Amino acid sequence: MIRTIIKRECLDNILSFKFMACVLVAIILSIISVVFLTNDYQARLKDYRTGVTINEESMKHVPVYSHLALKVFKKPNPLSIFVTGIDRETGTYADINHRDIPASLRGGSIKNEFSHMFSFFDLSSIILIIFTLLGILLSYNAISGEKEEGMLSLALSNAVPRYKLLLGKYLGILISLVAPLTLLFLSGILIVVLSSDAEVNAAFFSSLALFYVSSLLYLSSIVLIGLFVSARTSRSFVSLLVLLSFYLITVFLLPLAVNGYADRQISLRTRYFEKSLQSLTDERGKAVEQVYIKYRAPRTWLLPSSNARLMKRITPPEYLEYYKKIYPINERIMEEYAVKINALREIDDAAAVMIRRWRNAILAVMPSTNFARIADLTAETGEAGFLRFVGRLKTYWQSYVRYLDEKDAFGLRYFYPYPEEFTAQEKNLIERIKEDYVRDNGRIYRGKYLEEALGINPEIRNLDLSDFPEFNFQPRSVSEKTGAALLNILGLVSYSFIFFLLAHFSFNRYDPRKDA
Amino acid sequence: MEYQPSILKADDLSKRYEDGVLAVDHLNLNIYPGEVYCLLGANGAGKTTTINLFLNFIPPTTGTCFINGIDVNKDPLEAKKYVAFVSENVMLYGNFTARQNLDFFAKLGGKTDLAKNDYYQVMRRVSLQEKAFDQRVKNFSKGMRQKLGISIAIIKDAPAILLDEPTSGLDPKAAAEFLEIMAELKKEGKAILMSTHDIFRAKDIGDRVGIMKEGRLVMERTRQELQYEELNKIYLNYMNSEPSAF
Amino acid sequence: MLKHMLRRQIVEDILGFNFLINFVLISGTVIAFSLIFLSDYRGQMDDYAIKSARNENHLRHFSEDPRDADYANIQLIMKPRAERFISLSYEDKFPQGFNFRIYPYELKVLSKKQDITGVGSYIPVTTREFIRSPELFSPDLTFVVQFLLSFFAVILAFNAVTGEKEAGTLRLVYANPAKRSYFIAAKYISAMLTLVLPLLLGLITAAVTLGISSIVPLSSGFLSKLVIFALLSLLYLSVFVLIGLFTSTVTHNSKHSLVLSLIAWMFLVVILPKSPGLLLNLKHFDVPTGEQIENQVARASQDVQKKYEKEVMALRKDEGSFLRFLDKVVDPEIDHARQEVRDHYLRRKIAAVLTLRKVNIVSPASLYEYAASAVAGTGIFHFEDFWAQARRYGDGFISFLKQTSGNQEPYTPFEFNIEWITNKQFEYNAIPKFEEQNMRIGELLKDALPYVALLVLYNLFLFTLVFYKFDRYDIR
C-alpha cells in the first residue's frame, strides 16, 4: 500500500514543471561550480607542491640557523570543491621562526580586495538554496492541495490508515529530492576523479558520504516541515506563504544577521591584543636594549645594519665572542616574548570562543544552519578546520623551538659557519667596507657588496637537518568528524522526528472535505 | 422479499456543527443490496453531510452509521473496505493518464492484482472514449472526469457505493449513460446511495427516494408509490411546508 | 472602471496574509540590521578616533622635529558614515585607506592583513586572523529592498492573472465593458502601492533606530539620500512586479506562474549577481597577491638602481656630487617607480571589478545595488574618490612644505628633500590636515545615472511586454 503511494507521489513530482525547472537550474549551477572549483583546487595544489618543494630545497642549503626560513604549507583540501568554506581566503602558508608564534596564514587566493561582492556557489549552498526551495514547492500543497482538489476525500474513502498516506507522501517527496541530489553528487565526484591531479582517497569519499547523509537528513526535515504546515491549513496559498517566509528567514536572513552580528562582536571585543601589543613590544625592545647595554660591543668600526649578514659571515674574532655571548640571550628574550605575545592573543581567542559558542547555539535551532555547520565540520574548510590548523601550527612551533634548543642553535651555529681563516677575497672585502662612507639610510650600494659577499664562499657546509621535526597535519578521520558534528546531526534527526509526529497528529485531525 | 441486512444503515444519526447548525437531524436510513436510494434536498439540506458521516470524515453527534454491519465510527478502516465513493468534481491527478489514476485508486482500494485490460474494460464500461485511456487527465472535460470517477468506484467492487451529486454539470447524453451504469450496478446487487437535486433523474433511477429538509428526512417513497404522483410537486411542496411525521 | 478595479485590488492585497508577513519580516530585518550597523559603527569610530589621535601625535612631532622620520607618516582613513547603512556595498571589506609617508613620498594602501610592527621593531608580529563567515549579502537597507521586498513584489504579482482565471473572476470582469489594459494597470498600481507601505516603514524604522541610538549623526544630506534611495527602490520593485505580472500572462496555471516567478527571482537576485566571481580567475582580471606586489615594487627599485649604476660608480670619488646625484636623480626616480607599481595594481584591481560589474547589467538586482551604492556615496566609487582626495592631500602637503622651505624651484613630491627644511619648526595649526570631503549629490547622481537609466529601460521593456501579452491572453 505504502509503495503505491510512494510511487505515485514520486512520479507526480518528477513530471511536474517545478521539479524539472529547479533540478535543471541545480544541475547547471552544480556542474559549473564543480568544474570551476576543481580547476581552482588544482591550481592551489600545484602552488602547494611548488611551495613545499622550494621549501625542501632551501632546507638543504642552510648554513646557519639564522638562515632557516621555514615555511609550513597548508595542503588544499579536495573537499573544498564541494564545500568551499573559507579555505580559499585564509591563506596557504605560515612562516615559522622562533620570534613569533604563528597565528594566521599568508597568501590567500582572494587577491582583489574589491571583489568580495562576487562570491560563488558550491554544492552545499546549492543544496541550501535550491533544494530547500524545491522541497518546499513539492510539499506545501501535498495535503492542502489534495484537499482542495478532492483527491483527499477520495483517498480516505478507502481502507488506508492516515499515517500510511502521510508516510507515503513523505517518502515519495524525499525520494524525488534524493534522486537529483544523488545525481549531483555522483557527477561532482566523477568530475573530480576524472580530473588529473586530485588527491582523493578513502577519507575523501567517506567524508563525502557523511556530507551526503547529512544532506538527506536535512532535506527530510524540510519535507516534514512542509507537510506539517500543509496539514495545518486548508488553503495551499497560506501554506506556501508560511513556508516561503520560513525559507527566506532560515536560509538567508537568520544566518546573515546572526553571523554578521557575531563576527562584528568578535572583532569588537577582541581588541585586547592590538591594544596591549605596543606595550609588550616596547618592553621587549627595552629588554633587548638592556642586553646591549650590559654587554658592550667592541667598537672596531660602525656597522651599518644591512651588513649584518655579511658581518656574521666574516666577522673578526672579537666580534665572534661578542655575538656568541649576546645572541643566545637576545634570542631567548625573543622566544620568551613570543610566548607572552601569544598569551595576549589567547585572551582574545578565549573571548572569541565564547561568542562563537553562543552563535552556534542560536544557529543550531534552524535545520538549515545545522546543515551548514555539518557541512563545515565534514569538509573542514571552514572556521573549525582553520582553527584546528592554527592550533597544530602552534604545537609545531613548540617542537621547532625545542629542536633549536637541543641543537644549541643560538649559541653554536646561529650566525657563523666555521671558516677558521679568511680567504684573500674576504680580507679584501673587509678593507673595502672599512673605507666606505657610512650613511644613515645607506641602502643600495651596500647591497651591492652584500651580493658579492654572499657569493664568496661556495664551500659552506650546510646544516644536517635530517632530524628536523616534520609538520604533520592530517584531516580528522570520519569518525572524529561524525563525533564533532554529532549534536548537529542529532538535531536534524530530531527535527525530522518531531515534525513527523506533529504532521501525523495534524493530519489525523485534518478535515478532508473539499469545501470545508 | 427475502430478508437481507441493509448494507448502508444510518441509525438515529445526528450532526450538529460547532457553530450550532444542525446539519443532520435524527436520520434513519436503510439501503439494501440491489437498490438505488436517491437522497433529494435543497442545498444545505444535509445530503453531503450524511455522506461525509458515512465516510467518517466527521464524527456524528449522536447515532451511528453502519456499512455492511460495521460501525463506521468505531472501525473506519474495516468499514471502508465495503464502500466505494464517487465525489463531486474531483480534479484527479492531472499529470497522470486515466489508466494511471485508475491503477492508483484501485490499489488503494485493495485491488492489487489487476491487469491493464481490466482497467480498459472498466473504462469502456463507463463509455469513456478509448483514446482518453492513456491521455493526461488535466485535459479532460467534466463529463470525462465524472466517468473516470465512476470507474474508480466500479473497480473497487465494493458492495456499497456512495455518490455525491453525480449528475451535476453533465450533459443529457452523459447523464443518460450514467443512469444506465447505475442500473447495471443495481442488477449486480450493489447498494447505492446517491445524493442529488435532480428530481427527474431521481425518479428514473431511484428505487426509493428520500427528501431531506433542514437535516430531517421529511418524506420517503418507493418507485411504485411515486407512479401515481408527481414528484416535483411533492418536492416543491415539501420545500415550502412544515415537515410532517412520516 | 479603473478606480473600481484598483480599489478592490488594493483592499485584497492589503488584507492578505502575505502583506502581514512581509510587514513583520521587513521591520524585524531592519531592526536586526540596525543593531549590526550600530555595533559596527561604534567599532569603526573607535578605530577612527585612535588613528586620528595617532595622526595628530605624528603631525605634532613632525611640526616640532621634521627630521624625525619615524613620525613623518600619517594614515588617511575613510570615515565611517551613516550612509553605509543605506548601502554598505562591501565597503567594510575594502582597504580602509592609505598610509601617507611624507618623505620619501609614498601613498600606500592599508592592507587588512598587515602585520603589526611595533614602532622601532623589525620583528613582524602576525595579527590574529579575523575570520569572517563568507557573506552572500551585506546587511544594509539595499539588501532589504533588493532581496526581501522584491520577493514580496513577485509574490504579490505572480497570481494576478492566473489566479483570477482559475477563480473564474477573470471572465466575469471581462463580461463587462472593461478595457484590457485597465485590469493589468489596476494590478500594477495596487502592487506598487502595497509595496510603498513596507518600504516606508523600513526606512522610517531605520532612521528612527539610528536617530535614537545617538551614536550615528543624521545629517540632512543623509535624509535627502534616503529619499532618493526610496525613489530608486520603487523603480527597482516595479521591475519585479512587472516580472510577476509577466509570468502570470504567459501561463495559464497559477502553479506554473509561481514556479516561473520564483525561478526568475532566484536567478536575477541570488545567482546572477554573484556569478562574475567565476571570471576573476581569468588572466585578464588576475592580479598578483599583496606579497607579489611588494616584490615587484622592490624589483622596480632595483631596476632603477641598475640603470644608474655606472654613473653612480663614476661619481663615488666626489662625495658632494655623489650625494647630490643620488638625491636629485636616483632616489626620486626610485620612489616614483615604486609608487607607479602600487598605483598600477590598485587601478587594475578597481578596473577589474568595474568591468566584471558590467557583466551583471542583465540583473536588475545588480543595477539597483550599484545605483544605490552610487547614491549613498559608498562602495567602489567612494573608494576611487577617496583615493583622488588622498593624492590631492599628499600633493598639497608637499606644496605647503615647499612654501615654508622657501625653495623656489618646481619639483614633484618625489623630489622633495627633507634637507630643505633647515631645522625649521612649523606651526602645528598651519599644517594641512586631512578632512575627507563627502561627494556632492550632483556627482553621486551622475555616477548612478547609467544604472538608473538601465532600470528605467528595463521597466519600459517589461511594461510593453506585459501589456502586449495580456492583450493576447486567452481569458477562457
Which fold name is given in CATH as the topology of one domain in chain B? Rossmann fold
Structural class of chain B: alpha/beta
Structural class of chain A: mainly alpha
- Give the tally of structural domains of chain A: 2
Keywords:
heterotrimer; B: 246 residues; alpha/beta; Rossmann fold; six-stranded mixed sheet; four-stranded antiparallel sheet; 9 helices; 10 strands; 35% helix; globular; C: 476 residues; mainly alpha; 2 domains; three-stranded antiparallel sheet; 14 helices; 67% helix
Explain what the structure shows.
The complex is a heterotrimer of chains A (516), B (246) and C (476). Chain A is an all-alpha fold. Chain A has 17 helices and two strands. Chain A folds into two domains: 2-271 and 356-395 and 472-508, no CATH class; 272-355 and 396-454, no CATH class. Helix content of chain A is 68%, strand content 2%. Chain B contains nine helices and ten strands. Chain C is mainly alpha-helical and 476 residues long. Chain C folds into two domains: 2-121 and 134-281 and 363-471, no CATH class; 282-362. Chain C has helices at 2-15, 17-64, 83-86, 141-157, 162-167, 169-174, 180-213, 220-250, 254-274, 290-315, 319-359, 364-376, 379-405, 441-471, and strands spanning 73-77, 97-101, 106-109. Chain C has a three-stranded antiparallel β-sheet with strand order 1-2-3. In chain C, helix 2 (17-64) crosses helix 7 and helix 8 packs antiparallel against helix 12. The radius of gyration of chain C is 29 Å and the shape is elongated. Chains A and B meet through helix 1 and helix 5 of A and strand 6, helix 3 and helix 5 of B.
List the helices and strands and how they pair.
The complex is a heterotrimer of chains A (516), B (246) and C (476).
Chain A: H1 2-14, H2 17-60, E1 70-73, E2 93-96, H3 123-139, H4 144-149, H5 151-156, H6 162-194, H7 202-230, H8 236-269, H9 272-294, H10 308-314, H11 317-363, H12 367-379, H13 383-406, H14 424-435, H15 444-454, H16 478-484, H17 486-508
Antiparallel strand pairs in A: 1-2
Chain B: E1 8-16, E2 22-31, E3 35-41, H1 47-54, E4 62-67, E5 70-71, H2 76-79, E6 83-86, H3 98-108, H4 116-125, H5 142-156, E7 160-164, H6 172-187, E8 191-196, H7 199-205, E9 208-213, E10 216-222, H8 223-227, H9 231-240
Parallel strand pairs in B: 3-8, 3-9, 6-7, 7-8
Antiparallel strand pairs in B: 1-2, 1-4, 4-5, 9-10
Helix pairs in contact in B: 3-5, 4-5
Chain C: H1 2-15, H2 17-64, E1 73-77, H3 83-86, E2 97-101, E3 106-109, H4 141-157, H5 162-167, H6 169-174, H7 180-213, H8 220-250, H9 254-274, H10 290-315, H11 319-359, H12 364-376, H13 379-405, H14 441-471
Antiparallel strand pairs in C: 1-2, 2-3
Helix pairs in contact in C: 1-7, 2-4, 2-7, 4-7, 4-8, 4-9, 4-12, 7-8, 8-9, 8-12, 8-14, 10-11, 12-14
